[in-house]
Amino acid sequence: MGSAKNKASASRKARIEEMRRAEQARERRNRILTITASVVIVGGLVAGGTYLINSQSEDDSSSSASAGQKGKFVTGEDGVRTWSTKLTQTHVNGDVKYAMNPPVGGDHNQVWMNCDGDVYTEEIKKVNAVHSLEHGAVWVTYNSKASDADVKALADKVEKTPYSLMSPVEDQKDPIMLSAWGAQRTVTSSKDPNVNKFFEKYVQGEQTPEKGAACTGGLDK
Predict the structure, then answer these.
(1) Tens digit of pLDDT for each residue in 10-21?
(2) What does the domain layout of the chain look like in residue ranges?
(3) Bias category Low complexity: which stretches (predicted)?
(4) What CATH topology corresponds to 73-202?
């Protein structure tokens, strides 16, 4: 009788020990799975974070870096300089470092400067003015070396001309410059006959990427 009880007790202990080992094995497996899952999740978060950072960096670079133009101005017999490569037209946030000054095209802000004969007496953002050029406007710019008489005469012309605008650009190389999408020239004064020639050719001219697009409803200062 005692022997039978001893055998039963030993068998029960063996089963308990076996169950304990099985439970420990399950716990080890669960720990391994948990650690593995954690590594995968952390890895995914790191990769995702890296992707977001890289994406943000790309967004930032697209909004503040160069317009990406590798071309140059080519001067024609008429004195007009035209850009030698296709100008990009991507809408970006922030400033753009243009390859020319004043810029004649490239990436720009999604909002244009009003260009329905608008005369601005203070400098405007180039990223908005470039959008106006995309709509077919001629942009008259001047610096402090231009005479008051020329500035007034050019302002009078712009005010009478839809799809044109005017503003000071102090850091441009010449006193008076005319710009359109992909084209630019310097004029000697408001009486220079090339002023009218440039307006006639480039106001809503063949160079316009978005001919007929509005010159109102944008920024006015």
Answers:
(1) 555 555 555 556
(2) 1-64, 73-202
(3) 1-11
(4) Glutaredoxin (3.40.30)
